[in-house]
Amino acid sequence: MTSLIPTRIVPSVTPAELTPRQVAAELRKLLDSGAKMRAAGEAKDNPEELLSLGYTPKHAISLFGTRFYLTNPLQNPALRFLVAYVVQRSAATGRTEIYPRIFYKDLSLVWRCASHVIANDGDFWIGKGDVRTVRRGGHDFEECVESTTDLPFEMQTALETVNRRAQPKTDEEALYLVLRNAPSSRTEPYRDFTEPRRRAAADRRNLIYGGRSIARFTRKNDPSSLRIVDGFEPDFSKGILETSEGRSAMYGGPLRRFRILSRNRKVQYLFFAGPKHVWIIPPQALTTELSTYGVRTVDVVADEDLFVPGFEYHYYDDDSDEEDFSQIPEGFAGEPSEHDSDRADASAWLDLIPIIVEFRRKVLHPRSRGVY
Description:
This protein has 372 residues and is α+β, with helices and mostly antiparallel strands. It has helices at 20-32, 49-52, 156-163, 174-178, 191-202, 347-350, 354-362, and strands at residues 36-37, 59-63, 66-70, 74-75, 80-89, 96-105, 111-113, 117-118, 125-126, 131-136, 139-144, 169-170, 215-217, 226-228, 240-248, 253-261, 267-273, 278-285, 311-316, 324-326, 343-345.
């Protein structure tokens, strides 16, 4: 049975004003009252073992009827992350269920929920959500739609607050305990990630712009050729919901985040601005349904080249004798980051995109690339 998912414009949430002891006790009370914990990784046979192993929550956030219990930040060589316990009432049974997940900070600085992991025979790759089939050069390719793992914009600032409350501890076990380990050949996530999205899409009233792209470039490798469907442009005059501040060594210090509604109030954008860079996180719907992964079940389709981060992957691929591996449009890669030589400056592309030009002119200081 399909249904129309409600939408709501709400302020960003903040962590609950509870002590770590109170947060842990709240989760324990749910378990003692019969709530079922369901893990997907190595802890699936005894998921409560996660608590005895030290993955006890210290912080809590609530959004749209879902409660999130979060550990202090953890770090392995690849990721900064939190173990999250996503608590929802099952629509089928009415019982409270608890899902351990991994919330991690992507290199674009947005917080995501990992869909699975591949860790076999020397491979290591974090599952990046749903997939789509694209056709290039007469062949079909399967690619990840990474934005399907982006956690709601309404909780991004709260997650960053949690991230900065404590120094991260080194941990190389949590990912395997929590995440399902997939074969090396499997890019797509499992049914528990995809099925809520399929149900939401079955009612076409839930689709943003009918599931079609709201933004595209009309000419290849021409950032000035961006076209956005009328009404879906960010409203820089009356649509800025809130701003927040942070810091990033990679981006040279202070950062500001701007959560901005579209003119038609159908979607929301998240702009990042640093001393030299501005980039955009893929827009999100305003729907209130979250899956057990904590992500929205409805997404927004748009050209991914609009969402290149300030520094993006661009390096020589050892498996290729001919070319670099790059996620920056051809001809626009700048100097490598001094913090990560595998990532290059994408400003040459970003600074010619019309809505970034407009954002700088209308929201930031009109004569500077910096943040004021």
